[in-house]
C-alpha cells in the first residue's frame, strides 16, 4: 500500500508522529507489488507497480517495461502513465524515469515522454536514479554495466542533458546531498 501524510505543520516530535499515524492511504488492494514512491512539492505521488511473480526475488532483476508508472494526484486519482522504473521528480510537472532504450522525461501537461539519454542494453531494476534537489543533476547507477553516470541538466524546457562524470564502479544506488554538491554511491561488496 501507499500512504501520504502532510507533516508541514508538525512542530514537535509528537505532532510529527501523529501526522504520520493519520496518513491517508492512497492505493487500494494488494493484487500488485508497489515500489519506490516519489512525492512532488504539490503532493502528487509517483510509484511503480508490477504483478506479483512466483517468487518476488525475480522482480529485483525484471526489465523496466514490465513495470507501470502510476500517478496519484493530490485529489486521490490513481492512473497509469507509462511503462518504466524509478520515476524521480524534476519539478511539479515533469519527472525522469528509465525504460528500455534509456533515460526519459515525462511531461504531465501533455502526457509526452522524450528520451534524453540513450543506453545500450535493457533497463532493469538493478539500476537506480536520483535527481538532485536543485534539479541540475541526475545520477544513474547500473550494477550490471559497472558504471554510475552523473548527468547535468542544461535546460529542462528542451530536455537537454550533458555528461558531467562517470564512476566506473558497479553502484547499486547513487544519491545527492540536499545542497547538490556531493554524491554518495552504494557499492555491493561481494560475499566471501
Quick synopsis:
This protein has 192 residues and is mostly beta strands.
Overview of the structural elements:
It is globular, with a radius of gyration of 17 Å. The strands form five sheets. The chain has a four-stranded antiparallel beta sheet, with no helix packed on it. Strands 7-8-9-10 form a four-stranded antiparallel beta sheet, with no helix packed on it. A four-stranded antiparallel beta sheet has the order 11-12-13-14, with no helix packed on it. The longest helix is centred in the N-terminal third of the chain and has 9 residues, at 13-21. It has one helix at 13-21, and strands spanning 3-4, 24-25, 33-39, 45-50, 68-72, 78-83, 85-91, 94-99, 102-107, 112-118, 127-131, 137-142, 147-155, 160-167, 173-176, 183-186. The chain has 192 residues and is mainly β. It starts with a strand and ends in a 6-residue tail after the last strand. A hairpin with a 2-residue loop joins β8 and β9 (102-107).
Give the end-to-end Cα distance, rounded to a whole number of Å. Answer: 36 Å
What percentage of residues falls in helices of 4 or more residues?
under 10%
State the low-pLDDT regions, or none: none
**SS content category:** mainly beta
The Rg value, from CA coordinates, equals 17 Å
Q: Tell me the strand order in the biggest sheet.
A: 3-4-5-6
Name the beta content range.
over 45%
- Counting H and I runs of at least 4 residues, what is the number of helices? 1
Mean pLDDT: 87
Count of extended strands: 16
